[in-house]
Amino acid sequence: MLGAQARRANVTDSLKHTPLHRFHVDHGASMIEYAGWEMPIRYSSVQGEHLKTRSGGGVFDVSHMGRFKVRGLHARRLLDRLTSRRIGAMQPGMCRYALVCNERGGVKDDVIVYRLDDDEFMVVVNAANREKLWTHFNETKAAGELRAELKDDTEATAMVAIQGPKVMGMISAFSKEIPSLKRYRFTQKNLMVVKLLVSRTGYTGEDGVEVILPANSVGMVMKLMMSTADPKDPDAPIGPAGLGARDSLRLEAGMPLYGHELGEDINALCCGVDFAINLDKGEQDNEDMFIGQEALLKTRDEGGPAQKIIGLQLEGKRTPRQGMSVLKDGVEIGKVTSGCLSPTLEKPIAMALVETGHAAEDGSLQIELGKSHAEATVVPLPFYKAPKPEPAASAS
User: Fold this and answer.
1) CA-CA distance, 57 to 199, in Å (whole number)?
2) What is the pLDDT at residue 193?
3) Has residue 6 got a pLDDT over 50?
């Protein structure tokens, strides 16, 4: 039988590595398995990397996320069928957050759709759902007899998120176009011999960009991005950050995560992202309804979802965890979906899926913490909203 150390080595050897894996190892990152990839959970501390992102900037390797190209005569129709947003209304250079639903109105994944050209798109999907969605996209294409080419570019590319209030100032030193991008817009740039796709998007609640580039060029670009920061210097304004900080940042920003606030058995109208669900799709000429839309229309017409995602702020210092019961006067009304001790607010916070009748702001609830209870107040989401950024100085 293999010893424990040998078994761990075998597990590690079987994991996929992003193009930045050597960077993570060389800079002392603590590595974990996530969705079949070996990824950095932290370099120093989750709290330190979280606060650095809030005050200066964090650089996150998100190359494990799936990247699908969709092109061809029926590319738009395919994505209109697959996603909850109106894809035909997008212009080249726009990207949109959307849901991919099942027939019951549950959520298969949340994605970002980029329109590269009239008949060419890219879809960024969660790492844990990449294989499931690849199958779903191909089956939907075949069922509709749609002429569209699908290509999985995940392992041929890398993706880096650079987030924080000082990021645009850093970028303005070598680009005047990128800091002028509006939110959910992107541009394609040539940096020396490397073609980059840079979007003003992110998952932290901070201003910043996400960059997609060829996998074999990531070392050069990473060096340029980190040129103003020493990864080993805790006082550097911008530095690398791991998945731990990315999770606590998105929770403070009230952003849902698949497997927590989103899931196949959670109605899409429960999740607090109604802005990303166009229930009037199909009313325009040559426009398809999306998979799951009929189920969601029925939910809406029958009075709305029975549950709703809410924000909770707890008394004390105990950290709420996913699956803990949410109570009202001793009766369970829901479950915690995500929780942490907020590094920014220095208070325990949680998102929870509860009965809609108990979702009113300022309501008083309890969370069952093992043998004890913690008082919790319903608060509006997001828990934290970044100050409006000052205009960045452009490059000369």
Assistant:
1) 16
2) 79
3) no
Contact 63, 156 (CB under 8 A): no
Distance CA 211, CA 298 (A): 39
pLDDT at 7: 35
Terminal Cα distance for the chain, rounded: 64
Handedness of CA 324, 368, 271, 92 (dihedral sign): negative
Q: Are 278 and 113 in contact (CB under 8 A)?
A: no
Residue pLDDT, tens place only, 326-345? 999 999 999 999 999 999 99
Work out the number of other CB atoms within 10 angstroms of the CB of residue 317.
10
Q: What is the pLDDT of residue 363?
A: 84
Task: Give the separation between CA 295 and CA 304, rounded to whole angstroms.
Answer: 11
φ/ψ of residue 380, rounded to 5: -70, 150
The pTM for the full model equals 0.93
Q: Which residue has the tokens 């991008």?
A: 181
- Are 358 and 345 spatial neighbours (Cβ–Cβ below 8 Å)? no
CB hemisphere CA count around 27 (13 angstroms): 22
- Give the neighbor-by-neighbor strand order of the sheet with 186-191: 186-191, 194-199, 208-214, 157-163, 57-61, 238-240
Q: Provide DSSP, 293-304.
A: HHHHHHHHHTTS
Residue 80: how many other CB atoms lie within 10 Å: 23
